[in-house]
Amino acid sequence: MTENVIISIKGKQLYAESGPDEMELVTSGTLKRDSRGGLTISYQESELTGLEGTTTKVHVDGGRVTLLREGSINSQMVFEEGMRHLSMYETPYGALSIGINTKRMRSTLGESGGDLEIDYAIEIDNLLAGQNLFRMNVKKNPSLRQ
């Protein structure tokens, strides 16, 4: 099953040294169920996000969400409520070791779409870099049929 979808993303980052930074994006993409029952949402990043030329895939499987970016930026971030995961975040300027500490995660995603919300802290080289809130809404796109 692959569905064409409209994806609404809202992100908010809180940094200790400055005020909140907010981003909102509405884009088209796909929603696909894999053979193990997990869901993958895929979309192309844009100039608005600063990640133009990057494909983002969000894989939801039970209580684990994996965000994978490939292209101008390469990264893999794993979110599990109450857990801390380490990964590498590759940029054009070099690679960073980042820690993702997921405080809260809620998902109502299914084959017809739904919502995903992740509240997490991000660490860069073991130092707290900010608090983040990521919200995604996925809806079937009735104007595009597979």
Can you describe what's shown?
This protein is mainly β. It has a single domain (2-140), classed as Lipocalin (Beta Barrel). The protein has no helices and ten strands. The chain has strands at residues 2-15, 18-33, 39-44, 54-61, 64-71, 74-80, 84-91, 94-107, 113-124, 127-140. Strands 1-2-3-4-5-6-7-8-9-10 form a ten-stranded antiparallel barrel.
Q: In short, what is this structure?
A:
The protein is mainly β and 146 residues long. 0% of the residues lie in helices and 73% in strands.
Largest sheet: 10 strands, antiparallel, barrel
The CATH class designation is Mainly Beta
The fraction of residues in strands falls at over 45%
Low-confidence segments, given as residue ranges, are none
Count of helical stretches: 0
Strand arrangement within the widest β-sheet reads: 1-2-3-4-5-6-7-8-9-10
CATH H-tier superfamily: Calycin beta-barrel core domain
Gap from first CA to last CA: 10 Å
- Oligomeric form: single chain
Number of structural units classed as domains = 1
Shape: globular
Number of β-strand runs: 10
Give the SSE string.
EEEEEEEEEE
Overall structural class, as computed from helix and strand content, comes to mainly beta
CATH architecture type: Beta Barrel
**Nearest-integer average pLDDT:** 88
CATH-defined fold name: Lipocalin
